[in-house]
Design a protein that fits this description.
The chain is an all-alpha fold. Helices cover 74% and strands 0% of the residues. It has two domains: 46 residues; 102 residues. The relative contact order is 0.10.
Length: 151
């Protein structure tokens, strides 16, 4: 029950944010329903067997997305000045922490189930939460510095 309330509150927050930030008469706020629908589907889906390819596909997509972030950052970093440059650097460190968190999650979830990870020590759930929190905090700080520079 608490999980469903949390999901609903997150989705209401996203919809509210999109309503406040969009142009009057825009339908951008409808995108707030997309995470809501996806979260409902993923929380209600209970696979009957372990789906090993999901780990490979998910890891590949995550790694490609991280490499794209690195590539885009390298291309655009020189264009920033002052606080925006510092904010971009902090954001890159935040993305790196989120990528590390994704790797930790793969080890944490996959170790008991996947033979290829049998000899890898299991990561603590506390380590995952700390890396995740640091990543989002750094993204927020970096974003704030970039926004302050634009004003």
């Amino acid at each position: 029950m608490k999980r469903k309330i949390g999901i609903i509150l997150v989705c209401v927050g996203v919809i509210g944010m999109l309503l406040v930030s969009s142009v009057k008469g825009s339908y951008v706020w409808l995108w707030g329903f997309v995470p809501f629908i996806v979260l409902i589907l993923l929380t209600s889906w209970q696979p009957t067997q372990q789906l090993s390819p999901v780990f490979g596909i998910g890891g590949g997509i995550t790694t490609l997305a991280y490499f794209y972030i690195l590539w885009a950052w390298i291309k655009n970093h020189a264009a920033h000045e002052g606080k925006a440059k510092t904010g971009g650097q902090i954001q890159l460190i935040g993305y790196s922490f989120l990528y590390i968190t994704a790797l930790f999650l793969c080890i944490y979830i996959g170790t008991p189930r996947l033979a290829g990870l049998a000899n890898v020590p299991v990561i603590s759930g506390v380590s995952i939460v700390i890396a995740f929190s640091i990543g989002f905090a750094l993204l927020s700080i970096g974003n704030r510095l970039i926004v302050q520079h634009k004003k």
